[in-house]
Amino acid sequence: MTDAIDLRSDTVTRPTAGMREAMFKAPVGDDVFGEDPSVNALQDMAADILGREAALFVPSGTMANQIAIKVQTRPGDEVIVEAHAHPFNSESGAGAVISGVQFQTIPGRRGLLDPDRIRPALRPDDPHFPPSRLVCIENTHNRGGGSVYPLDCVASIRDVCQTAGLALHMDGARLFNACEASGVEPRRYAELCDTVSFCLSKGLGAPVGSLLVGDRDLIHEARRWRKLLGGGMRQAGILAAAGLYALEHHVERLAEDHRNAKTLATGLASLEGLAIDLNEVETNIVIFQVVRPDMDAYSLFERLWREGVLVLPFGPDRVRAVTHLDVSPADIEQALAVFARVLGE
Ligand SMILES: Cc1ncc(COP(=O)(O)O)c(C=O)c1O
Questions:
Q1: pTM for the full model?
Q2: Does the beta carbon of 173 sit less than 6 angstroms from any atom of ligand 1?
Q3: Whose CA is nearest to atom 8 of ligand 1?
Q4: Candidates 9, 12, 142: which one to mutate for ligand 1, based on the most atoms within 8 Å of Cβ?
Q5: Contact by Cβ (8 Å): 37, 235
Q6: Which is the closest atom of ligand 1 to the Cα of 171?
Q7: Ligand 1 close to Cβ of residue 72 (< 6 A)
């Protein structure tokens, strides 16, 4: 469906002409030897933006999260995450396979962990229990509807971790959306965490790639695990160039995606049969409920699909729509007209 208005995810964006041009012209070398100038420039830029010593370019957000877990745990450790966190729910059980860790999940409000609920979840030093070693938080939270961590909440989580000797990883797949919405500089979040990952291939519009950022020693170790996992790429500068372009050209425009999400949500709220709390639309993710006896998320999805509007069912009565680089204000108006028609049938 090439002409569809694709609101399933911000991962569906295609590289712009400017980005393709940058990829075409990218100077390259062998990145496994550390000799790709474009990869090195991207890693330096990521470390600089986040105010940390070093960064590692990896193929995906999943690999960034899993390497972060690997380098900060030992087999048998416990990792504390919110119940709907990506590494627990959507990474094929990799934490168990790669790191031999178990997860303890804590329900959060819209995916955000409450520091007061982490404290009682920490394991006492007792041979019966797995050692609590790492907390992972997700900013923005995908299944939480693009919710943003307030900086003081991350600071409180950091305090809990520090007191108990745990590390803190932020899965910032959509970190720049969080920063745009909150006005918090990326480095302010990053200085509170041991590691932060962010994705280039979501709202930032690059075709591939994520960065893992942290202290030099940890990133050095991460590089070894990237190789072990098959993520050592050679002339990866072609991909890194897209990332550099994205960081230079596609960060500020995230505000546009957030405006489009608000317009979409406001339009959806006015339609009979859908329920949505407009206060919960903070970034580019809109999650709404289907509240009609004759329709559920799957049948709505199918009807919209036939009309060229793509969304993602998120359970029997929940649907997710995501705005991004390839969705214009006119597309939002058109999508709303299709919703109105489909719901009026
Ligand atoms: C919050 C979050 N973390 C990690 C990932 C994994 O990214 P990737 O698809 O690049 O592996 C995603 C993907 O949607 C995500 O939403």
A1: 0.97
A2: yes
A3: 61
A4: 142
A5: no
A6: 3
A7: no
Residues of the chain with CATH 3.40.640.10: 15-249
pLDDT tens-digit profile of 133-142? Answer: 999 999 999 9
> Can you tell me the distance from the alpha carbon of 107 to that of 49, in angstroms, rounded to the nearest whole number?
31
Would you say residue 59 has pLDDT above 60?
yes
Name the segment(s) of the chain with CATH classification 3.90.1150.10: 253-344
Give the architecture (CATH level 2) of 253-344. Answer: Alpha-Beta Complex (3.90)
Name 318's Cβ contacts closer than 8 Å, sequence gap at least 6.
Answer: 287, 288, 289, 290, 297
pLDDT in tens, 223-250: 999 999 999 999 999 999 999 999 999 9
Place of tokens 């709220």: 269
Q: Which of 90, 177, 196, 197 has the most ligand 1 atoms within 8 A of CB, as the residue to mutate? A: 90
End-to-end CA distance of the chain: 23
- Assigned CATH class of 15-249: alpha beta
